[in-house]
Amino acid sequence: MTLIDDQNNSPCKDNCPCMDYCPLGSALSLIGGKWKIPILCALFQDGTTRFNELKRKIRGITNTMLASSLKELEEEGLISREQFMEMPLRVEYSLTDDCRDLMPILNQLAHWGAQVHITK
Amino acid sequence: MTLIDDQNNSPCKDNCPCMDYCPLGSALSLIGGKWKIPILCALFQDGTTRFNELKRKIRGITNTMLASSLKELEEEGLISREQFMEMPLRVEYSLTDDCRDLMPILNQLAHWGAQVHITK
DNA sequence: CGGAATCCATGACGATACTG
DNA sequence: CAGTATCGTCATGGATTCCG
């Protein structure tokens, strides 16, 4: 079972590096891959967004990668998909509450990343 | 230039998803790959550790991957390497201060990961 | 002991074309 | 408009062997 150590701020205890299940690795895998962070950032900044709108904002992404990344993020519970039965078809994506909880943490990570990059 | 938005807790602003440089992507790339988190966790929990000791603790890692991961982490400034001119050779690895600053953030990420996994 | 060198398998990712 | 299908490429990681 997973024990997270709050006493010493260790990311994980008794489960990393040697245990089967690591909640940190699990969390990182959810946002891994080349396009998930840009997608989450776009949805966070602009709110509910349609497929082709996302494709325009995220420069360089292809149909294939946007579609597969969105599908994974939805399966992981980080974004929600709403389809409107209109013609032409309209599909809107937005962040879930779980994902919104994640954003402040990613913000801290970004700050840390900016600092170590400077001092490097 | 990189602007991190503190007002709304967005991981990044004006630089993600469409800008060249993203401090969040940069930070994530530093700890990316299959073995970096286990290595950092091992060093955090047990402090200064030798090469073969790390190899024993991190189950499943090979010489190649441990060596290359350690080298990358050192180049990134997350760990420090000290070599003692003895026979047999002794090399000790430990976390840098920069990396220790990172640990509480990873701890939060682990907590978040544990929660979303439960509710999923 | 602490690696480096080499080769190989796999999966992520990209490009293009096509569809309901 | 919002995707899927197919195929090619390349980076990541694994296995093994060898070296100072």
Automatic annotation (TrEMBL), chains A, B:
Molecular function in Gene Ontology: DNA binding
Domain of life from the UniProt record: Bacteria
SUPFAM superfamilies: Winged helix' DNA-binding domain
Alphabetized InterPro entries for the sequence: HTH_HxlR, WH-like_DNA-bd_sf, WH_DNA-bd_sf
Span of domain HTH hxlR-type: 22-120
Annotated Gene3D superfamilies: Winged helix-like DNA-binding domain superfamily/Winged helix DNA-binding domain (1.10.10.10)
Annotated keywords: DNA-binding, Transcription, Transcription regulation
UniProt protein name: HxlR family transcriptional regulator
